[in-house]
Design a protein that fits this description.
single chain, mainly alpha
């Protein structure tokens, strides 16, 4: 469900629904409770409610901060993995220039097929939360077979050959890491804690009575808006390959790899 929402609605739309909806529900709940219990406006229980709000708010704030920082770090790590994989593939393409024309052509064909498969086949699968090794396996295997069958004829070729083999191994490792990242999501218990905590904290603000209704609604709306925006961040950062803030496949189409998209 979360992947469908991220892939079919913009972050701005999700923000309007999540933040606006949270604020609207909080304001409506506060007004209804105040009408049901007019004595709340006198603030007779503000001391107790204030202490409870402070305690719950501090605990919940720490939890949300931890979750958001963790998810942002995960997104940053995913971008690094993608950039590293594309860089290694680009270096292989450059090193191939030192090999005989036949070997270079075969390696270029394998690399071209690989980057096209990553962008055109594997990326949509990752956006849908269904990554597949098979989408690029044939092309990666072809690149390995080209290098395994080639016997360098000079010290110069040996240097570039060793570099190409190392970089191809790195591509395989980064591919595995990238696909693992595509399957990552916030554990259910943390999801329940992050979203369930809002169901506890926001209603508590209804109990903090103020004489003027406008001031109380401003207080309730501010807390609800902050919580709604924080939960929006948790939602959009949880999936690094889905939504407007997702990792881009652009590195596979730039630099030395751009030649494979011009043909």
């Amino acid at each position: 469900m979360s992947l469908w929402l991220l892939n079919h609605f913009s972050t701005f739309t999700l923000a309007l629904v999540s933040v606006g909806g949270t604020v609207a529900l909080a304001v409506a709940g506060s007004v209804l409770l105040r009408r049901r219990y007019p004595s709340l406006a006198r603030g007779e229980h503000n001391d107790m409610v204030g202490v409870t709000l402070g305690m719950f708010g501090a605990i919940y704030g720490i939890i949300l901060a931890f979750v958001i920082v963790t998810l942002w770090t995960q997104l940053d790590n995913t971008q690094t993995i993608v950039a590293s994989e594309a860089t290694d593939a680009a270096l292989i393409a450059r090193d191939a220039a030192a090999f005989p024309p036949g070997v270079r052509a075969e390696l270029d064909t394998a690399l071209s097929g690989y980057v096209h498969a990553v962008v055109e086949d594997q990326w949509p699968r990752m956006r849908a939360g269904q990554p597949s090794y098979g989408a690029t396996e044939t092309h990666l295997k072809s690149a390995f077979e080209v290098l395994q069958a080639y016997d360098p004829k000079s010290p110069r070729e040996e240097v570039f050959y060793e570099e190409a083999v190392t970089q191809l191994n790195d591509v395989a490792a980064q591919r595995r890491a990238r696909l693992n990242m595509a399957e990552q999501e916030l554990p259910p218990l943390l999801q329940a804690l992050a979203f369930g905590g809002a169901l506890v904290l926001v209603p508590l603000t209804f109990l903090y009575g103020m004489r003027k209704l406008r001031i109380q609604l401003l207080f309730v709306a501010s807390v609800a808006g902050l919580i709604g925006f924080s939960l929006l961040l948790v939602f959009v950062l949880d999936r690094p390959f889905a939504g407007d803030l997702s990792v881009s496949p652009a590195p596979y189409q730039e630099g030395a790899l751009a030649q494979y998209w011009e043909r």
